[in-house]
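Work Package 4 report. The design task specified in the project plan requires that, given a folded chain encoded as structure tokens, an amino acid be chosen for each position. We show below one input record used in the internal validation round.
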């Protein structure tokens, strides 16, 4: 049987397809059951473990999902940076409104200035939120299409 090329992300599917238990796979590969469980749960595996599993399944190890992983990591890091930026902007807005609210409390003629500043910050934060958090992205489009055309 010629080895096929597949990545080991689908370890559980390959194991179930052959009707093997985790114990059987562990015995055939020489790995512990816990190692099999960790790999199936997406945790990193050592190269030797991967080689053992590749031999059992008669497959060639590939790194086809490395670029996908890097892209996913970049997206996650960007998302975290965007959240940090949102909180920083919110903190700046709150801090910049402290003095105007104190002035407005002491002198009623300053409430107009306070409300203009408040409205400005609400608009700025709203625009930032709409641009950064992509409420109407691909996921939203897919849901709308499925709803409209009743696709499952």
């Amino acid at each position: 049987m010629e080895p096929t090329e597949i990545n080991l992300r689908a370890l559980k599917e390959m194991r179930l397809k052959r009707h093997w238990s985790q114990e059987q796979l562990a015995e055939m590969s020489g790995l512990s059951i816990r190692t099999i469980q960790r790999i199936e749960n997406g945790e990193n595996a050592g190269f030797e473990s991967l080689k053992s599993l590749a031999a059992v399944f008669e497959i060639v190890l590939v790194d086809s999902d490395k670029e996908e992983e890097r892209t996913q990591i970049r997206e996650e890091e960007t998302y975290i940076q965007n959240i940090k930026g949102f909180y920083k902007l919110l903190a700046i807005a709150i801090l910049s409104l402290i003095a105007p609210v104190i002035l407005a409390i002491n002198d009623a003629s300053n409430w107009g200035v306070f409300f203009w500043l408040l409205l400005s910050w609400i608009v700025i934060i709203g625009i930032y939120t709409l641009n950064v958090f992509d409420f109407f992205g691909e996921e939203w489009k897919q849901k709308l299409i499925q709803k409209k055309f009743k696709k499952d």
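The first helix runs from residue 11 to 17. Validation will be extended to a larger panel in the next phase.
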